[in-house]
Write a structure and sequence with these properties.
With 103 residues, this protein is an all-alpha fold. It is built from four helices and no strands. The longest helix has 46 residues, at 50-95.
């Protein structure tokens, strides 16, 4: 999942690409948002100039990169935890007392 949500990412990406129609932007949102469609339309209405779109596109790229880094850290942490768990299991097996059958 990304840090701004799927709907937020779609809407901001469309804004960065020059979409200005609030109705089209609202259509990019998922149905399960807390805000109503009217609130969302009001939020995306406004005067966005080309310099705003450039900065927004740059910030979205940064967020995408951060999301990739977070995902990679999650994978690395998962691997480390599995290795630690595996090592703990091996130590437990090695430390088990061996019962030899009576002769």
């Amino acid at each position: 999942m990304n840090s701004i949500g799927v709907s937020g990412h779609r809407i901001l990406k469309a804004l960065a690409k020059g979409e200005t129609d609030p109705a089209k932007l609202v259509e990019l949102a998922a149905d399960n948002l807390k805000a109503s469609r009217e609130q969302l339309a009001e939020a995306v209405s406004g005067a966005m100039q080309s310099r705003h779109r450039v900065v927004l596109a740059m910030r979205l790229e940064e967020l995408d990169l951060l999301d990739q880094h977070i995902a990679e850290l999650g994978r690395q942490l998962g691997k480390a935890l599995l290795q630690q768990l595996h090592g703990t299991r091996l130590r437990l097996l090695v430390d088990l007392p061996v019962r030899r059958p009576a002769a």
